[in-house]
Amino acid sequence: MDLNAFITSVNDMIWTYVLIGALVGCGLWFTWHTRFVQFRMVGEMLRLLTDSAVDTVEEQVKEQRQGERSKHISSFQAFAVSVATRVGTGNLAGVATAIAIGGPGAVFWMWVIALIGSATAFVESTLAQLFKQKHKDSFIGGPAYYIQRGLHQRWMAVLFAILITCQFGLSNNSIQANTICGAMQEAFGWSPLLVGCILAAMALFIVFGGIQRIAHVSSVLVPVMALGYMVLAVVVIVMNIGLMPHVMKVIVLDAFGIEQVTGGGLGAVIMNGVKRGLFSNEAGEGSAPNVAATASVSHPVKQGLIQALGVFTDTLLVCSCTAFVILISGLYEIPELNGIALTQSALQSEVGAAGPVFVAIAIFLFAFSSIIGNYYYGEANIRFITPNPTVMTVYRILSGGVMVIFGAVASFELVWNIVDFFMAFLTACNLTAIVLLGRYAFRLLEDYRRQKRSGIKDPVFHRHQLPELEKELECWE
Fold it and tell me: In terms of Cα–Cα distance, which of 116, 42, 17 is closest to 306?
């Protein structure tokens, strides 16, 4: 058995028998105990994001006038960095892969895991804010920090830090590079190795600039690339609006169809929908909390709500647009087409030769912003393990350089299998932690709601409100 086949069999066993049940079970548990926060508080999520975006623009104008730069990143910038890692290859290549392998029904299960998982995203990001720490010019935090300070399990915290560094800082960056190079080769015929070297040089320049540079780059790139891609996808959908009832019917029937049940294929449909959905929206994986912790807010729940909105933005909007375009084209039935090539071919069939070129440019922006966001996840967790600057320098070279070039030349199957392998163990570790610590997120949400009901527009949290944790909370004086 070759390496790809072995990793595939291990991944299928882990995902089928462990993670799908854990993800859905935890999502339902958090949905119930937060009283359906992801549905009831959508209006508050949008208000918080809008207010934060306005404040960010005003602050940037003030900084330019005074010749200064803020030492903390805003709630909106933290949202932009996390969306930068979510909105990327998972939306263009990941959705295509799920449909090509699992069939149209995989889209339905991507929606399910997003609707349920947004409650999980709320809990993990709220906990990250609660247990964050001060670090030089910004805050720092994430699952490794709330595992150590909340559960007092250093070994588990270090394990998580190692897993997320391997998953995001290293293997996930190879996925982004692989997808960019595949798109450029499909559209322009450029050598993957050449594109990989150029990409690595650009990534290294950004990652040596720190979280402030990452935040400023992402807050510009993310809205532009997401809106541009969605506009094109919506145009294609509107042009084929008559086919949409058929597309929805195909998705639902394939998700629950008799053929899948009797043929033993239903498990493959669900597994691919859940895997690619998790890769795209990251709810429960423990990645987004690392950047959620860096935001400067007055109450931990604020960033939890904003990060929950990010799951909706990613899966229900961007992923759905890609899925609809592919299903409208009908090209998902061609076995030779997979990944980014399927998305490019689907757009080409609808808008002509400009389709692959547009996707190549879009995926470059999507995936490049994901590379720099992924890098930060690893940086935050390496700093948790050791302050040694030499280790950080080596990591930066590996993340922004070596793994980017590896992804450029490695096979499509190998890079996705490696990512699925690390993603399984990373998610299992984080879910265990947030189930044990979830009660604090529930209490914080109740406090936030209580303050809102009393007429306070901008709720504030102080650490004395959780006396049993007061010594562990560094940033809520």
Answer: 42
Q: Is 11 exposed, middle or buried (0-12, 13-18, 19+ CB in 10 A)?
A: buried
Backbone phi, then psi, for 330, in 5-degree steps?
80, 0
Q: Indicate the pTM of the whole model.
A: 0.82
Q: Tell me the pLDDT band of 446, cut-offs 50, 70 and 90.
A: very high
Q: Is 452 exposed, middle or buried (0-12, 13-18, 19+ CB in 10 A)?
A: middle
- Please tell me the least confidently modeled range out of 14-28, 75-89, 149-163, 417-431: 75-89
Looking at 189-263, list the stretches that DSSP marks H as alpha helix, in order from N- to C-terminal side. Answer: 192-207, 210-239, 244-256, 258-262
- Token match 């058929």: residue? 246
How far is Cα of residue 388 from the mean position of the Cα atoms in its chain? 28
Q: Residue by residue, what is the 3-state secondary structure of 391-444?
A: HHHHHHHHHHHHHHHHHHHCCHHHHHHHHHHHHHHHHHHHHHHHHHHHHHHHHH
Backbone φ and ψ of 295, nearest 5° = -75, 145
How far apart CA 426 and CA 267 sit, in angstroms, is 22
